[in-house]
């Protein structure tokens, strides 16, 4: 059996359902108020920011904005996503619940590790009843927004190896490579194949993950 470290957005949660409309509404507010130039954003331009913690995202996306405006935009986008989740607009990827149920029934330990904030984690934990599947929950805000590969080093002594990191972005594969762990890259998510190049196995869909885990252990 293994300790399976799952990313959330883009691996479990089909985040663009709520992130894309919230992102576009926030950008419209910024442009309407003269803080940025008006622009139409494609889905790939939006999804590239999924997987970043929100503070890093805004610092890299619009560093010219004042810290106060970046924080206001960050909160606006987050509040918009929260409303959409509470209104039932969010969804897990098709096949995720069956995949997680299979892995749990096989006796693996399922660990949630996300670059999200505590309120986001708890809201989704409740909305999608994630306690059915996950044994432990960790998010970057609890660790002062450290990178995932460093957060792993803090909590890993509490869990039994072997560890397998499962995710769709470079943050997840970096967690594995920086710590000498096995990894599964989720090609159905929002990262590029280049980001997943160092993964030990590529999963084309959530249904592929149990077989990938079995192959690695």
Domain module count: 2
Radius of gyration: 17 Å
Oligomer: single chain
Q: How do the strands of the widest beta sheet line up side by side?
A: 3-2-1-4-5-6
In CATH, the architecture of the largest domain is 3-Layer(aba) Sandwich
CATH evolutionary superfamily of the largest domain: HAD superfamily/HAD-like
How many angstroms separate the termini? 8 Å
SS element count, helices: 9
Spans of at least 5 consecutive residues with low confidence: none
Structure keywords:
single chain, 217 residues, Rossmann fold, 2 domains, 9 helices, 44% helix
Give the helices and strands, then pairings.
Elements: E1 3-6, H1 16-32, H2 43-47, H3 54-61, H4 67-86, H5 96-105, E2 109-114, H6 118-127, E3 136-139, H7 148-155, E4 163-167, H8 170-179, E5 182-186, E6 201-203, H9 209-216
Parallel strand pairs: 1-2, 1-4, 2-3, 4-5, 5-6
Provide a compact summary of the structure.
The protein is an alpha/beta fold. The chain is 44% helix and 12% strand.
Descriptive overview:
This protein is of the alpha/beta class and 217 residues long. The protein folds into two domains: 3-14 and 92-216, Rossmann fold, CATH 3.40.50.1000; 16-86. Helix content is 44%, strand content 12%. It has nine helices and six strands. The model has no long low-confidence stretch (mean pLDDT 94).
